[in-house]
Amino acid sequence: IMSSEIECYFETALELTKQAGKLIRDRISENKIVEIKSCDIDFVTETDKQVEKLLIDGLSKQFPAHRFIGEETASAGGQSSLTSAPTWIIDPVDGTLNFVHGFPHSCISIGLFIDCQPTLGIIYNPVLEQLFTAKKGQGAYYNGKRIHVSGQTDLTKAIVMMENGTSRDSERFNCLRANQEMLVPVIHGIRSLGSAALNMAMVAMGAAEAYFEFGIHIWDIAAGEIIVTEAGGVVCNPAGGPIDRMSRRVLCASSQALAEQLTQKLVQFYPTPRDD
Ligand code: LIP
Asked: Residue 230: how many CA atoms within 13 Å on its side-chain side?
């Protein structure tokens, strides 16, 4: 694909993202009508649905041959298979629980995959005006400035991001606790922003060294992957080896060495069903 085409895809998506971001910004401190999805802490609001519709309508009008995987479309029974066709993978509000509470870490996350490979990524938190972007081979940016991972190779000097997530699965909870017990005594600290995309953005900008989660979906990580790798970081399977994008598991890190130290130590959890 020509780089002018990628530029056109990027500019179109960015323009729509800015428009949709206004909905999130205007409503974050209002009361929301909340619907429950997979369990009592997995939410969807009217805003999630409107943002997804605005983005998919806008992109499909410009690019009628492109395909879409959207969080709310998938939750409503839409399918999530990734083919070689240009596919936009969209989380309209990543950090919905934050949005519902007015905790200012929610974002729009959009990744474009072509030939099943990440091509561009946009993560936009309209509340704090944080824009993270990347295009294949062209680096990663935060509000227009080039960013890089910290490059840290020593797990004992790391901030590691992990999440409680939005499921009440007791086995997953035991795994979470075991990993916390293993990490807290040896690393600098644990953090969580409540959004997979924003956690990945923190690794990309060198503010944190690693993030892992069991139970996320492809739309939570589709933009973050290219932003982390273009910032010089590593995105992989938390058990080691290359990322398995539909496996609902991810690990990203500031270096290959740090990723390996974590993968060797992590207690593993394999969420079901997969996204594909
Ligand atoms: C959220 C993720 C977060 C995870 C939550 C949820 P949503 O995405 O960003 O990392 O812990 O369970 O999946 O549902 O707010 O788009």
From this structure: 24
Tell whether ligand 1 has an atom less than 6 A from the beta carbon of residue 166: yes
The finding on whether 230 has its CB within 6 A of some atom of ligand 1 is no
Element (H, E) at 170: helix 170-183
**What would the mean pLDDT of 165-173 be, rounded to a whole number?**
93
Residue nearest to atom 10 of ligand 1 (CA): 196
Give the integer Cα–Cα distance in Å for 145 and 137: 16
Q: Give the Cα separation of 250 and 164 in Å (integer).
A: 14
**Cα–Cα distance measured from residue 241 to residue 239, given in angstroms and rounded to the nearest whole number:** 7
pLDDT at 225: 98
CA distance 274 to 276: 6
Same-domain pairing of 36 and 83: yes
Find the 68 Cα to ligand 1 centroid distance in Å. Answer: 19
Is 91 assigned to a binding site? Answer: yes
Residue (of 27, 59, 58) closest to 45 by Cα position: 27
Q: How many domains does the chain have?
A: 2
Asked which of 124, 147, 170 is the last residue of a domain, the reply is: 147
Pairing of strands 87-94, 107-114: antiparallel
Report ipTM (2 d.p.): 0.97
Q: Are residues 129 and 162 in the same domain?
A: no
Whole-model pTM: value is 0.98
CB 50 near ligand 1, within 6 Å = no
pLDDT tens for 237-268 read 999 999 999 999 999 999 999 999 999 999 99
